[in-house]
């Protein structure tokens, strides 16, 4: 059994006050054309316009700001192939400390460049979880840096939960909110905030069929780690975190899966109709709504667009 203390609504509100000066309050946008296709009202929370181009800025900033000074003085460290890496590097820079980021050798060049631009120190490793973890252990040992996990960490979940807090502050009576799910930090945080503010609202996770460990874990009521995931949504390759899984099991209605073809079509739709740059992972919730029209018909649905860090020279629909 776990003895985790999960954040209360007051904790989420305090996290928001803590990180407010370091993040953007991102807009909610709508699209009549996409609503017609979906048969429901859609409200897109644009975290692709967030600092570092992703919601991860929230959790990383909250986690660093909550670290006691003595733990912060030797810097912070993590392993990440993408947005958490950039978010932690930026949060470290903004708060006057150093970030050591273990990244797989095949991480997208755009994401490595982002980490470097924020002064993060990249340590490359083989592209598998074991190599990530052993390399990170070595880095922590050598530097004395504090490890800040990408998603399975209470202060990170609490920070990600502020995204839904902003959504609820808009006064929209959402019937459902849907987010992508990889490690589960965003989905867990969204479900937690929504449970406190509007328990009748259904929260859904959306993930690629080629990386469907969250759906399988959700149905089996135990974590089934992902082996050899294969999807264009590179931000959703990680397996669910333990803390995230507990919150998702408790407060999420269902987890829907979509094909890569559906993800690419939804991504293209957002580019063309909304003029927004989004990454494949961000298109997964819209793809899930379009693939499950009966579930969302005539409802007010909030969709979190999780990030916009895509290599525009390699768009999948070109």
TrEMBL record:
InterPro entries: Ser/Thr_deHydtase_PyrdxlP-BS, TrpB-like_PALP, TrpB-like_PALP_sf. It holds the Pfam family PALP. The keyword Magnesium applies. Keywords: Magnesium, Pyridoxal phosphate. Coiled coil: none annotated. The keyword Magnesium applies. Residues 22-307 form the Tryptophan synthase beta chain-like PALP domain. Transmembrane segments: none annotated. This is Pyridoxal-phosphate dependent enzyme. CDD domains: Thr-dehyd (cd01562). It comes from the Bacteria. It comes from Echinicola arenosa. Its cofactor is Ca(2+); Mn(2+); pyridoxal 5'-phosphate; Mg(2+). Gene3D superfamilies: 3.40.50.1100.
